[in-house]
Design brief:
With about 280 residues, this protein is of the alpha+beta class. Helices cover about 15% and strands about 30% of the residues. One of its GO terms (biological process) is small molecule metabolic process.
Length: about 280
């Protein structure tokens, strides 16, 4: 099932090129969308049939006529995977000689929750003169509290998947700083529930900047697959419903600039396009 948040924090089910407002079915509160999403995830089995059958013509809209928002409206934390594709390590070493280790030694790092943004919000470049790169990734949201969960059991704790952009400023600062600016974690266009993704570790992943394809990879090449990433995160701390994990990017990473349009596509999940703007970028001291 494709679940989306749209317009003024309404909750919807996407079918084809339409979306149906199902807020009433799940007692959704648009004033508290994160808490409402957690409630839906925790009670999804009870609501699933009603959501699948939802067919209210008065509350059904063409997707082209609505504004899609981040399918996870806020989050407690974002765990991200560094150097999780071998070919991405090779390209980083070729360009910058700065990736001597992979996720196997580095484990995960945290991004600021405030970097989260939606599939129609622009990426805002914060610093003039600094190279800022796109990184296409598969992301997922935690559905229930987890601690010390083995990879073999992780599937039971993941609620849904979405396309995710990990926007990154290049430099010598820590990853958390370089990747945590506002709008640096766009997600969307909706969330596909985990029961509809047969194997998240075998999905094609593509990214275009304007009309140029930059990244063309597959999650089958992950060093730590989705479930291993989940295991690593829960070895460090407790995960809670609504926490997000970004699984890392394949090769093809490159710079973006003011005026670009970045399109990401994940097989069986969806795609979205966001513009890039440098309207409020500042000069570094």
């Amino acid at each position: 099932m494709k679940l989306a948040i749209f317009n003024n924090q309404l909750f919807g089910v996407v079918k084809g090129d339409t979306i149906t407002d199902v807020s009433d079915i799940v007692n959704w509160n648009s004033e508290s969308p994160f808490e409402s999403l957690v409630y839906v995830m925790e009670n999804f089995d009870a609501y699933k049939k009603d959501l699948e059958l939802a067919d209210n013509k008065e509350k059904t809209y063409n997707l082209a006529d609505v504004t899609l928002q981040a399918p996870v409206p806020s989050t407690g934390k974002i765990w991200a995977a560094p150097v999780n594709y071998q070919k991405h390590q090779e390209e980083m070493n070729k360009q910058f000689n700065n990736a001597p280790r992979t996720i196997e030694e580095l484990k995960l790092f945290l991004k600021s929750p405030s970097s989260l943004s939606g599939p129609e919000e622009p990426i805002r470049l914060p610093l003039k003169g600094r190279r800022t790169d796109h990184e296409a990734e598969l992301g997922f949201v935690v559905g229930k509290k987890a601690r010390n969960v083995k990879a073999s059991e992780a599937k039971d704790y993941i609620f849904g998947y979405f396309a995710l952009l990990d926007i990154s400023i290049r430099g010598n600062e820590e990853r958390t700083w370089r990747k945590s600016f506002d709008t640096f974690t766009p997600i969307g266009p909706w969330m596909v529930t985990a029961d509809e993704i047969e194997d998240p570790n075998n999905l094609d992943l593509k990214l275009w900047v304007n009309d140029e394809i930059r990244q063309d990879g597959s999650t089958k090449h992950l060093i730590y697959d989705c479930y291993k990433c989940f295991e690593a995160a829960t070895q460090n701390m407790t995960l809670y419903p609504g926490d997000i994990i970004a699984t890392g990017t394949p090769e093809g990473v490159g710079p973006i600039q003011d005026g670009d349009n970045v399109r990401i596509q994940v097989e069986n999940v969806g795609e979205f396009t966001v513009p890039v703007t440098a309207g409020d970028a500042i000069e570094e001291e």
